[in-house]
Amino acid sequence: MATVAFILLCHKDREAITAQVERLTAAGDKVAVHFDARASQSDYEALRSNFVGNPDVAFAKTRVKCGWGEWSLVAATLIAVRTAFEAFPEATHFYLLSGDCMPIKSAQYVHEYLDARDADIIESFDFFESDWIKTGLREERLIYRHIFNERTQPRRYYAAIKLQQVLGLKRAIPADLRMMIGSQWWCLRRRTIEKLLQFVDQNKGIERFFRTTWIPDETFFQTLVRHLVAEVEIDCRTPTFLMFSDYGMPVTFYNDHFDLLLAQDYLFARKISAEAEELKARLGAVYAEVDRNFSVSDEGRRLHGFLTGRGRIGQRFAPRFWERDATIGRERTLMLVTCKKWHVAKRLLDRVGMATNLPAIEFLFDEGSTPLPDLGGIEATLDKRSRHRRAMVRMLFDYYETDRMILCLDPSRLHLLRDFFSDRCETRLLEIDCQYGDDYLQGHARRVGLASEMTTEANFAALLPTLRNDLTREIEAIRDERFPEFFRIKETAAPEENAAPLAKFLGIEHEKALDIARTDYLFAD
Fold this sequence. Notes:
By secondary structure, the protein is an alpha/beta fold.
């Protein structure tokens, strides 16, 4: 009978991870855990302590700081795969899972399913000829070098692509590889894993190429497995059930999806909501069952595809999901930065992006040119973003597959602050308290149409006190709201003084916050 070594990529919620590992090993299988290096060392040590002396559980020899869309996700997977390959010589299959995956069949069913087919289960579609990529970059993922992360440094990310386009810095794709693409989630046989690891060790140039491609977890294994394994031995599908909306966003499953999930022709499912405690308990119980019959119909995917397909031609049976779902989500943390000097807020987000893995979006509701991914049209105009603001933010959380994100808001957007603080998500607010010199106020007056290049010094002298008072009133109105989890850093304060509120706001170590606060150009005009 098949023995599965599960490769578990996770970054939070050690209690849920512990339960997942115990569930999987109770069925006689093995688990190799990679716990993101961006998570706290104390959480990692606490997780490890739960499995001391357990021969069925191994931890990746090296922890990697993982970033969405980066090579680091592939690096973490490779490290965990090597760990599992060496620690579990009896493992016949290696199955990649995330922390928010749950089984939708019994362990008995999973083993019998794998025993019945001598194949690698992995999506592997031609990168250029298939329509697997629905939105966003396509060829650009490969032919340009991606140095910056789109979600933490979006302005630099898109500027770097533009610069390479202008300079004609396209690069060649390895000639001996047929580039493939597919879901990150797969189940591979032991001999395939052995071939893949040997190939990577013997062909260092392959790793160098993929290191600077965009979202390589959707191309690296998919391409190499097709290169190393005969096509007849590849079941070109993912063993893990996941759905995307017609706007390219992953669908999250909740308590009322139990029957739908069990009816799907897959072994596991993602993404299960952190709030769906009942669903997780019921699925966990199913995994332990023996001789349970599953009636597989796959109607969920077909129904979803039918409805979204009708939607694309304007014949909707229901409102767009951004119109019907008006919450960001209880398990998420939204961090808002407000500052009248937009360039100061942008610099702070840039530094935070370099120091952490937090997605950071600039003035989403104030600046039409804010770099954003393709979200199916909701991001197209400031009016649409504001009208569907909670859904817009929720889609960004989904797009970046994160539960923590930073947004900038102009202090005049008090109504948006009130709205976000009334949501079920955890909302934090950081005010950047700046000094406003006459030169800044004159520029601000021109930007908002109160002055022009023809405005005289005498007119400015009469106008500036009013402007200064207006900016003060905006900030005072925010402070008067007495929002919970409200923090402030000041231009006039020392970095050591600003580090404490910054650390609490971001949820990071004091030393890392101090390093950000010491940015010498942060408040420069």
